Amino acid sequence: EVRLQASGGGLVEPGGSLRLSCVASGFAFADYTMSWFRQAPGKGPEWVSSIGKSGGAGIYAESVKGRFTISRDNANKVLYLQMDNLKPEDTAVYYCNAVDGPYDYWGHGTLVTVSS
Q: Stretch 78-85: mean pLDDT, rounded?
């Protein structure tokens, strides 16, 4: 069974930090491009960041560039998103995604709320 379990969300004040994790199982994690998406209340899904199969530098939406860092641990099948200098507009449910050709997997999200 394919599973992507995101965690690490919560309530944080503006300017604060959170680290999201996404634990994968049931597929060959190292063969997949991994991404984070988010969906804010009342809005459509938004792509946040992606990282290649072997890791390295990720790519980012302009709205998070310079504040968020994506990384992965292929040995332990975990995807991370370090979020710094959080803003109220970062409030959303964050989802991890795995893609390899026709295979496209989504996990349950984790809620991030940025508020004072």
A: 98
